[in-house]
Specification:
alpha/beta, Aspartate Aminotransferase, domain 2, Aspartate Aminotransferase, domain 1, 7-stranded mixed sheet, 11 strands, 44% helix, 11% strand, globular, binds pyridoxal-5'-phosphate
C-alpha cells in the first residue's frame, strides 16, 4: 500500500495501541526529516499552488473530520500528501517573504508548547514558560543596551525604571501594543474618557501597514498620520522632521508617537535612528522603532551600526520569527521603562503583581491577549542550538548575500535595483513595465523552482527577494536571473507575434 515505509510503521499494532502518541510522533518526525531533505536539495518545488477544492478532496478532509481515526498508516499517508501541498521554506529557491526558515530546534519547542499547553500570561499557568519569556526578553534588552528587568522582582521597588517587554503573536500586534502604550502615556485617562480628537502619529509612508491599521483601531485614523519626508531610498530625512511636526502642530494636534523603521518592509532600508531619537527627545515625543525585521542586526558585530541610536527609543518591535530562525509566531515588544507598559491597558496596574504574595511574574496586563501561548521556548531553543554567535553569523551571511547579489545585478544591463540593500531584502526590476514584473513573478511561481514576491516602491513595481534561507547561494541568484531572462524573452516574443 505504501511505497515508502516510515520507521514508525514497523511497530506492531499492539505497541501502537499502547503508545499512540509515541508511534504517531515517530511517523511524523520521520516524514518531516524526509521533507527537509527533499526541500533543501530542491528535489521538490519551492511552491505549488493546487486548487483549494482539490486539496480538500485529495486529503479526504471531510472523511477524517467526520469519522476521526487519523492515526497510524492513515496518518502517514495524510502527512505525506499534506506536505506536498506546502510552500517549502527550506528550499533554497524560497526567497519571497520575511518569514523565518525555522531551525528544527524551534519546531521541537513548538511541539513542547502545544503538548503542555501552558498559557503563561499568568505565572501559575506556566512558571517555566513565563520564566523563559522573561529571560529571552532580557536577552534582547541587553542587545539594545537597556537595563534588563531584575530577577529578584520582590526586592526591587516597582517605582524604579528599568526596561521590560512582552512576547506577542506577531509584529503587527506588537506595533499596536506599542502605540496603545504610547497613547496611554500621553493621555493617561484615555481608558475612562475615551480618545481626544487631537491625537496624531508621525510616520514615514514606507511604514508597515500595521501602523495605519493601529491608527484606525486606536481611533486616530489615517488622517491622523502625518507623513515624514523621506529620501530616494525611503529613509526618513532627519533635517526635514520638523516639516511634518510643524504641520501637525499647526493643525492643533499632539503626537502619541513617532514611528521609524529598522528596516522598511518593502526595500529593507534603515531609518537614521540616532538623529530621529534626538529629535524625539527635544520635542518629548514617544519614539517607537519598528524593528520587526531588522532589529536582529543587533546580534551582528558587522551590522549593528545600522541600529545606531536604538537605545533612544521608548519602544521597539522585534520579531523572532523573521530573522532569528524561530517558527511563527514570536514577536517581542520591548520598552525602555517597564512602568509604561505595565500601565498601558489600565492605569493602576501595579497591584496585579506587586501586591501579590505569589512567586513569579504575570504578563497578562501587558498584552491584548488573555490566552497567550508560551512563545519564548521556540526562540530560546533556537538561541540555545545556534548560540548568539551562530545567529550573528547567519545574519551576516544573509546581509552579505544581498550585497553580493546586488553587485551582480548592477553589472547586468537589463536589471535595475532601486536601492543598494542594507539588509537581506533586495528589490530589482527587468526591462519592461510593471505588468511585465508581475507576469515574470507569476511565471516563476508556476515553475516552482523559485518563489519570489513583488513590491510597490515609490510608485513602481519591483521583484523582491527576501533572502531568509541559509542555503540560498549566489548560484541560486544566477539561476534565477537566467530563468527570468528566459521568461521575459518568451513574454516579449509572445506579445509581439
Ligand atoms: C513584518 C513586519 C511587520 C509585521 O509583523 P508580523 O509579525 O508579520 O505581524 C511590521 N513591521 C515591519 C517593519 C515588518 O517588516
Amino acid at each position: 500500500m505504501f511505497s515508502i515505509t516510515p520507521s514508525g510503521l514497523d511497530m506492531n499494532n499492539e505497541r501502537r495501541a499502547k503508545m499512540p502518541f509515541l508511534s504517531d510522533a515517530e511517523i511524523l518526525i520521520t516524514a518531516l526529516d524526509e521533507y527537509y531533505r527533499e526541500s533543501v536539495s530542491a528535489e521538490k518545488p519551492a511552491i505549488t499552488q493546487q486548487p483549494l477544492e482539490k486539496i480538500i478532496t485529495d486529503l479526504k478532509l471531510a472523511l477524517y473530520s467526520h469519522e476521526g481515526g487519523l492515526t497510524g498508516e492513515r496518518l502517514a499517508e495524510f502527512i505525506r500528501d499534506y506536505l506536498c501541498t506546502t510552500t517549502r521554506l527550506h528550499h533554497p529557491g524560497y526567497m519571497s517573504h520575511q518569514v523565518a526558515v525555522p531551525h528544527y530546534a524551534g519546531a521541537l519547542a513548538a511541539l513542547i508548547d502545544t503538548f503542555t499547553n501552558n498559557v503563561m500570561a499568568i505565572y501559575e499557568m506556566g512558571p517555566g514558560a513565563a520564566s523563559i519569556e522573561y529571560h529571552v526578553i532580557n536577552v534582547l534588552l541587553e542587545k539594545i543596551g537597556w537595563e534588563q528587568a531584575p530577577l529578584n522582582l520582590h526586592d526591587v521597588p516597582y517605582s524604579r525604571a528599568y526596561a521590560g517587554g512582552v512576547l506577542t503573536h506577531g509584529g503587527s500586534l506588537t506595533n499596536l501594543t506599542a502605540l496603545i502604550t504610547a497613547r496611554t502615556k500621553l493621555v493617561p485617562n484615555v481608558w475612562d474618557s475615551g480618545i481626544p480628537q487631537d491625537l496624531a502619529i508621525l510616520a514615514p509612508a514606507e511604514s508597515h501597514y500595521s501602523i495605519a491599521r493601529a491608527a484606525g483601531i486606536l481611533g486616530i485614523g489615517r488622517n491622523g498620520i502625518y507623513t515624514l519626508d523621506v529620501d530616494e531610498t525611503g529613509a526618513i530625512i532627519p533635517d526635514k522632521l520638523t516639516l511634518a511636526y510643524d504641520r501637525m502642530r499647526a493643525d492643533g494636534r499632539r503626537a502619541i508617537a513617532l514611528v521609524a523603521n529598522a528596516c522598511s518592509t518593502a526595500v529593507g532600508i534603515y531609518d537614521p535612528l540616532n538623529e530621529i531619537g534626538d529629535f524625539c527627545n527635544v520635542h518629548d515625543i514617544w519614539f517607537h522603532v519598528d524593528g520587526a525585521h531588522g532589529a536582529s542586526a543587533l546580534f551582528s558585530k558587522k551590522y549593528r551600526t545600522l541600529m545606531k541610536g536604538i537605545e533612544k527609543a521608548r519602544s521597539i518591535t522585534w520579531d523572532a520569527h523573521k530573522l532569528m530562525r524561530t517558527p511563527t509566531v514570536c514577536a517581542a515588544l520591548l520598552v525602555k521603562d517597564h512602568r509604561d507598559l505595565d500601565a498601558a491597558f489600565k492605569q493602576e496596574a501595579s497591584y496585579l503583581f506587586h501586591d501579590k504574595e505569589q512567586p513569579g511574574f504575570d504578563f497578562i496586563h501587558r498584552t491584548v491577549e488573555c490566552t497567550k501561548a508560551g512563545l519564548g521556548l521556540k526562540f530560546f531553543f533556537v538561541l540555545a542550538a545556534m548560540g548568539e554567535q551562530g545567529l550573528a553569523d547567519y545574519i551576516d551571511r544573509q546581509y552579505d548575500l544581498a550585497k553580493k547579489a546586488w553587485n551582480y545585478l548592477e553589472q547586468l544591463d537589463d536589471f535595475i535595483c532601486p536601492v543598494r540593500p542594507q539588509s537581506n531584502i533586495l528589490c530589482f526590476r527587468v526591462d519592461g513595465d510593471d505588468v511585465m514584473q508581475i507576469r515574470i513573478r507569476d511565471r516563476l511561481n508556476e515553475q516552482g523552482r523559485f518563489y519570489v514576491s513583488t513590491t510597490s516602491f515609490m510608485g513602481t513595481r519591483y521583484l523582491r527577494l527576501s533572502l531568509m534561507n541559509p542555503d540560498t547561494s549566489m548560484q541560486d541568484i544566477q539561476d534565477l536571473v537566467h530563468n527570468i531572462r528566459l521568461i521575459r524573452e518568451k513574454i516579449s516574443g509572445g506579445s509581439k507575434s
